[in-house]
Amino acid sequence: MKKIFWYFSTTLILNWLLINNLIASDSIILSQDMTQSKINKDLKLCEKFIKSKPHLKELRDKKMFSVSTETVYSKHIIKIDNILTPEVAIELYLELKNIFPNAFILQDKIINNRYKTTENRNTKVNTDEQLLWFAIFSLAIVGILALFSSSVQIKKILIRHQLMQDKQKKIEGFLANIGENIYSLSKKNIGYKGGSSKETEKSSAKGIIEKKLFSTTRVMIHFLRIKAKRIKIIKEEFNLNNVLNGVLGLLSHRFEGSNIELIFEIDNDIPKKIIGDPLHLSEVLTEVLQNALEYTENGEVKLHISLNSRNSLKFTIIDTGIGITDRQLETLFIPTYTSNDEYKGLGLFVAKELSLLMGGELKIIKSDENGTIFDCTIPFTLVENSRDDYRLPENISKNKKILIYEHNESSAFAIKKMFEYFNFKVDIVSPQKFNSNNINLASYDILLVDINKLDKSHIANIRDIRKQNDLKIVHLSNVFSTKRFIAHDYIDDWIEKPINQERIYELLISLFNDDDTSIDNLLPKKLKVITPDNLVEMDNISTNNFINFKGRNILIVEDNIIDQKVMYSILTKVGINITIANHGEEALEYLDANNKYDLILMDISMPIMDGYETITKIRNQSKFDNIPIISLTSLALDNDINKIFRVGSNGYLRKPLKIGYLYSTLKEFLIEDSTASPSPKKLKPKAKKYSGIDGLDVEKGIKHSNGSEELYKEVLDEFVSAYESSGDSLALWVSESRYEHVKRLCLDMKGLTSTIGAYKMFELVDTMHKQFLYNNVHLIPKFVDSYKKELNDLLDTIRKYMEEE
């Protein structure tokens, strides 16, 4: 009886462990057969299915699982193994179960259904029947518990799979809603044409709609590009500080007046220059920080940058906000489109996808009532010896003593760490101790303090000390503060928080270096400088107005392809000659080859050679003295703007560019063509000559793209990339009766084809979609050939149109 008892017990324990380790099993068996030909056929089906699923293909490319064949006792099998996470196992099993109904999850040791049990051959046989009944009773109890546990596990799997399906539906629905919004805005925009007794109100309303239309179209382009994995990841050397400054410039406008303390804590082993993709890193950091700031009403948001390994950086974003609920966490990275024409979750969706495309990962570490922590790890190649870029001149002593008077402890610690990089002795003083007057300020070389926190006695004491000692006073201000810095006789310089390493370096140079780097000494005397206060945004400016600068030669130095296209589209239409350089080194090559440029539009944050360095090199050559340089930047801090002028810019335009400011700037620096009509006639829309194209209403598509043919072509390009293989996907889904996927495709295509003016394709997918509404799903297979033919015709039409000049 003991032998029977141990047999039952061992078998039960084995089954218990198998059931509870279901999710973490080693393999998923897809197919088993005695013939190799059947297995080869199933293997091809499996490969085709995985390739048709972008998320499964991406998982395999990242080596999250592998597909293999094996022969076990003359039986051939196909299995999925090397599965890295439970989530991947769940996704694979539930997706592949659709085409391999007999698939099951199993550990390798029981592939052949051979349970290994252990017997104790030295055990004496006990004839007591109670032991048998006890074993049977144990079997029943453990069996019930096992079934209950299995049921719970299965429920968890199904819930997670349902969440994945819901996520996919919301992503597909997001695209359809954007298309509908573009169509709606376009109709409103057309409605504002014609005469009216309230032309001013009508013009204002039309302007608002055009801005929303342009913005929505740009969102669609970006979403399509990410959805189709068409984001090009570049690897170029860039200055990490420029990326941080650009991010800060964008956030400072969005959260102006906020009481939140934004902190950059950068480890001292982080180099100035790294090799990677600065544009997409900037976008990831902007989106995640913006999300953190939105969830934080008061308190702080900190970006901590550290080395994750020799070839990767970790960006940790910590906020002290209200936290994110469990329900919000489920849809945190899912973009949705609300009834108020707002995009929810798009930023984090973009950040996560871009992180993956750069070979990294964005994940949430924790979230509760004390705040939220995000981790973003991205691989970069570190530039050797880039630490030398912060080497101070010999005339600046290394024995400086710094005192930081700062109310926020985290901010003070981050600033201290950056000064300690230079081996300075740094102390932090609390408000209580500073107010007690027990601090010997005369023993310090620099005091960093928010001057708004000082009372009259403090200021008097500082003035007295400065009469005897060379104490430097640096005003600390918050980037979100609406208070403007006002110079005082006891203030040497100021700096805005959050601070990065390069700002500290530049501050030290400004305080202690005797070289004269004023604007007047760097900028050619004969050229004027236009500050933001002197520049006015011109009203009612269209592309036609730029004909006043016809024939001028402009060099655009810009690494962002979309910004290149926007400026190129506006300026070339009216006869302005444009040359585009992708970075500073290219710009210098063009200038050496052609010294006949009338103006340079220079982006500041670029890889290889940024705008600061490029402008400095240009201004060091007197032959370029007569060429005005206008900086293009998203930077907004006073220190950044001063640096732009200090290196030799004549003016600057803030990104994203506004056409009214661009026109005003060109008007200031270019001599207008006296032969040009002051009120030029409207240029005939280029789209009209394409009005005869079969299946594609180009004129309508351009109207939906806010009248920009360049923008319209960009939408078409993204459409082709994302949907050129959708015919094959449709055929596969129909053959497998996966009609939910077909329905989503119809919704996608309805929104997109309406936007681009593909009226024949729209009519077809609209008819297909109605079959779902009328419960005629059985008719969908009849549309597969028609869909493929219409799609191919549309793609040919688009390609011919795109090739036309």
TrEMBL record:
<feature type="domain" description="Histidine kinase">
    <location>
        <begin position="220"/>
        <end position="382"/>
    </location>
</feature>
<keyword id="KW-0067">ATP-binding</keyword>
<dbReference type="InterPro" id="IPR011006">
    <property type="entry name" value="CheY-like_superfamily"/>
</dbReference>
<keyword id="KW-1003">Cell membrane</keyword>
<dbReference type="InterPro" id="IPR036641">
    <property type="entry name" value="HPT_dom_sf"/>
</dbReference>
<dbReference type="GO" id="GO:0005886">
    <property type="term" value="C:plasma membrane"/>
</dbReference>
<feature type="transmembrane region" description="Helical">
    <location>
        <begin position="131"/>
        <end position="154"/>
    </location>
</feature>
<keyword id="KW-0812">Transmembrane</keyword>
<dbReference type="GO" id="GO:0005524">
    <property type="term" value="F:ATP binding"/>
</dbReference>
<keyword id="KW-0472">Membrane</keyword>
<dbReference type="InterPro" id="IPR036890">
    <property type="entry name" value="HATPase_C_sf"/>
</dbReference>
<keyword id="KW-0902">Two-component regulatory system</keyword>
<keyword id="KW-1133">Transmembrane helix</keyword>
<protein>
    <submittedName>
        <fullName>Putative sensor protein</fullName>
    </submittedName>
</protein>
<keyword id="KW-0597">Phosphoprotein</keyword>
<dbReference type="InterPro" id="IPR001789">
    <property type="entry name" value="Sig_transdc_resp-reg_receiver"/>
</dbReference>
<dbReference type="InterPro" id="IPR003594">
    <property type="entry name" value="HATPase_dom"/>
</dbReference>
<feature type="domain" description="Response regulatory">
    <location>
        <begin position="553"/>
        <end position="670"/>
    </location>
</feature>
<keyword id="KW-0547">Nucleotide-binding</keyword>
<dbReference type="Pfam" id="PF02518">
    <property type="entry name" value="HATPase_c"/>
</dbReference>
<dbReference type="GO" id="GO:0000160">
    <property type="term" value="P:phosphorelay signal transduction system"/>
</dbReference>
<dbReference type="Pfam" id="PF00072">
    <property type="entry name" value="Response_reg"/>
</dbReference>
<dbReference type="InterPro" id="IPR005467">
    <property type="entry name" value="His_kinase_dom"/>
</dbReference>
